[in-house]
Amino acid sequence: MTVLKEILSTGATKAFLSILIGFLVGAVFMMISSEQVGEAWQAGGLLGAFQAALMTVADGYGALFRGSIFNTRADDIVTALRPLTETFRLAGPLIAAGLGISLGFRVGLFNIGGNGQMIFGILWATWISTRVEMPLILHMAVAVIVAILGASLWGALVGFLKATTGAHEVILTIMLNYVAISLFTWFIRSPNLLQNPDAGGTPKSDAPALTAQLPALFPGAYSLHLGFVFAILATVVYWWLMERSAIGYRFRMVGHNPHAARTAGISVERTYVWAMAASAAFVGVAGANQALGTQLGYTETVHSGIGFDGITVALLGGGNAWGVLFAGLLFGAFKAGGPQMQVIGISPEVLGIVQGAIVLFIAAPPLVRAMFRLPALSSTPTLDRVRARLGRKDTAS
Amino acid sequence: MELELQGMTKKFGSVVANDNISLIVRPGEIHSLLGENGAGKSTLMNLLFGLYQPDEGRILLDGKEVSFAGPSDAMAAGIGMVHQHFMLVPVFSVAENVVLGNEPTSVLGVLDLATARERVREISERFGFDIDPDSLIEDLPVGTQQRVEIVKALARDAKVLILDEPTAVLTPQETDEFMEIMRQLAREGTSIVFITHKLREVKAVADVVTVIRGGKVIDSVSPETTVGELASLMVGRDVDLRVTKAEANSGEAVLQVRNLVVVGERQQRVVDDVSFDVHAGEVLCIAGVEGNGQTALAETILGLRTVTSGTITLSGRDITDSGVKDVLEAGVGYVPEDRRKDGLVGDFTIEENFMLDGSFSAPYAKGLAIDFAGRHDHSQKLIEEFDIRTPSLTTLAKKLSGGNQQKVVVARELSRDLKLFVAAQPTRGVDVGSIEFIHESIIKTRDSGIPVLIISTELDEVYGLADRIAVMYRGKVMGIVPPTISREDMGQMMAGIIPAGVKA
Fold it and tell me: At residue A370, does pLDDT exceed 60?
């Protein structure tokens, strides 16, 4: 927990430095993988290679900018702004899932079951969106609520099992991921359940009914839809819940010191159930984005691994609502800008490396401190962990 | 080996933890370092063990100056240390722990456990320890774990052994055995530095007593010195923990405990058929040697433990099977024994700590939202009323001194609407000024007509506060006696004997 606490207390400066190093690491990979650099080396030696390397990096990140924020090569302003709206669209589910995972962290729970929770919510939301007829707006609203409740239920199950049997939530969430995803696969392969009768070789669900789809915010111009607004709302709700409400206060109390919470009359077990339910509910907002923000049918891969991406968003966001919002937007921009980089011949996988490096530097604070000679702490997390372990063993025995 | 420290000084920022400390420990001598918590004893030993570097001063071993960059240097020079919190790996065997950091290896670096086992056996035999080199540390009782620590030090040929508060975790019986081991080690020529704040033990084993207060050596005295003199040297003034209080004006029995039995994790009866009353306007102290069921009793009243049989009644209402929340709401104020574990959230601010058990009600919350203004005003009132010394209300609790932390807990509990106040070890690890303040608060609470139940292992505190004393031994109440009982009789009762002439 100490490491988690330290990671979650990440300040803006450290986050910024981590992002900077992440981009530098990405730049190195771009240089290494670029064919132009190799050719220039053979043709013009070191200087040529150096120039080509700089060009490659500038091209690569230039493409990322054009693909995620502002397309400088567009003819009109509407097209030029499209990348930004794509960033917003893709950031929506990342933000929501990041909030959910963050909430878990702050209660001392490592929820790595985001994918399963999303899918379990999506399962019932798909039922609503493809098998039930309802009027406009109401249909969409019901489907969204069902997606959130379904996910929340799957999360609460984890909390319940942890509270009653003492099983660790990491194991529970991983295993329940398999259960949920396989369950969904079975549903979309069963013709009388959710399978699209017209689907060919790969069974998939029907497309959500028009009335159930998340409506576009700028119809005709952009595919950005209402899901992003839900993500922003979720951020505000998260902020209020965790910073302003007595419920969030109790969540944090249990996260910091379950012994003191118990002595203060709080049921730690019940808190775990509610916290997992709340964590998964935010993840459910991401599920609604995925399932209702599309005009096509989908398979079990509809979760897109966002439950896992949410962990990286939460780590970069430092457990804080606005931090998660920012981190979600950054990683959303990576998703939006990737294809542009591919167009100019740079592997978009480099963005995965950047993303991984950023989180690695966030999660390895001593390394960052050492590299930038930030004031050293009097104690390292490892030392604290050893001390805590010895101290605990001592009082327990 | 003779150990000499000359003018050791260590500063942390503006705080002088050790101020020009000099002392000599002769071969085969048990040298007791006596001082209150925070007097600078542990800092001094960490300097000696190479964990800290001194700002000034020299360390001499047999007259030769040495300097240690780290514990491995100190160990190589023949200094061994047994920490207050054991440095053992719970899932490793005794032999593995003993050689950890200094492993004998055969070809290709394979761990030579046979040699390690042999070493453990040899040392155990020499000192009559009954230690199986193959048992896992986590399966051993605390007293035996401590012996493993000693074996660990001796296995590296320690000639000077530093024992940091070694008896804090031992039962009285284990303590006696431990003191015998110390004597034997000394007879074999080991120099021992025995750090403690327990006067009885100092008098029993020490050859020389050096008293440290405020980072300075106050005096070196012989163990013949009386307990009273040692205590006043240690605290720095005539210790008078007697609390000034008026005669108790006791009323009806508010808390009634009848035939209470609580079975612990190891299936033993931690509370065994206990019955007593606490009346309005009186202080009932539960005295006893630590680990005789007092803590379990307090936790059971609060609802943290499940009652096996018997009843607990508060103002006529049965709270035997009530959960913690209901007990707190019924008007029980509770100060836990270990404030940092159970009483506070270190990473919360003082304000947040005030609302630990009131997070859904005024003045801390309005509906589901935290009432920030109300909380601020109420917290401001509390820190003034309870004289809590803090830079601000938003200071994290873990940044406060022990005394101020304890005052936060006491303030929180006393500020609620109480029918009963229960405090376990209310002044443990608290400075003398805060002790007095907390004692006054407790008496004030009593005088306002609230029944008070205090659990304390400090006899001075028990005599100072109690209107009646219940002595616990092995989960049973030996008897309830007035505070006029002599210390000798009290000591007997704490050892499970009811002395002749005492009506229990």
Answer: no
**What are the boundaries of each domain within chain A?**
79-332
Distance between B385 CA and the closest CA of chain A, angstroms: 22
- Distance from the Cα of B247 to chain A's closest Cα (Å) equals 33
The pLDDT tens digits for A178-218 are: 999 999 999 999 888 888 888 777 889 999 999 999 999 99
Paired tokens of B453? 């139940």
In whole angstroms, give the CA distance from residue A297 to residue A312: 28
The arithmetic mean of pLDDT across residues B167-181, rounded, is 75
Of B90, B141, B341, the CB nearest to A393: B90
Of A97-101, B207-211, B225-229, where does mean pLDDT reach its minimum? B225-229
Given 1.10.287, 1.10.260, 3.30.230, 1.10.3470, which CATH number is that of A79-332?
Answer: 1.10.3470
Interface residues of B toward A, Cβ cutoff 8 Å, are: 85-87, 90, 138, 141-142, 145, 169, 302, 304, 323-329, 334, 336, 338, 341-348, 352, 355-357, 359-360, 364-365, 368-370
CB contact under 8 A, A394 and B86: yes
Which pLDDT score is estimated for A10?
61
Residue A44 CB contacts under 8 Å (≥ 6 apart), including other chains: none
DSSP letters for B258-320:
EEEEEE-TTSSEEEEEEEEEEETT-EEEEE-STTSSHHHHHHHHHTSS--SEEEEEETTEE-T
pLDDT of residue A6: 58
A264 and B356 within 8 Å at the Cβ level: the answer is: yes
* Burial (Cβ within 10 Å: 0-12, 13-18, ≥19) of residue B206: buried
The CATH superfamily label for domain B3-235 reads P-loop containing nucleotide triphosphate hydrolases (3.40.50.300)
- Residues forming CATH 3.40.50.300 domain(s) in chain B: 3-235, 253-347+420-494
Cross-chain residue pair A246–B142, CB shorter than 8 Å: no
Tokens representing residue B171 in the block: 């039962």
Contacts of A253 in chain B (CB under 8 A): 345, 348, 356, 359
Check: complex ipTM more than 0.95: no
- The reply to whether residue A265 touches residue B327, judged by beta carbons under 8 angstroms, is yes
- CB-side neighbour CA atoms (13 Å) of B499: 15
CATH 3.40.50.720 for domain B253-347+420-494, yes or no, is no
pLDDT above 60 (res A383): no
Residue B369 distance to chain A (closest CA, Å): 4
- Per-residue model confidence as pLDDT tens digits over A89-124: 999 999 999 999 999 999 999 999 999 999 999 999
What pLDDT score does B502 carry?
A: 76
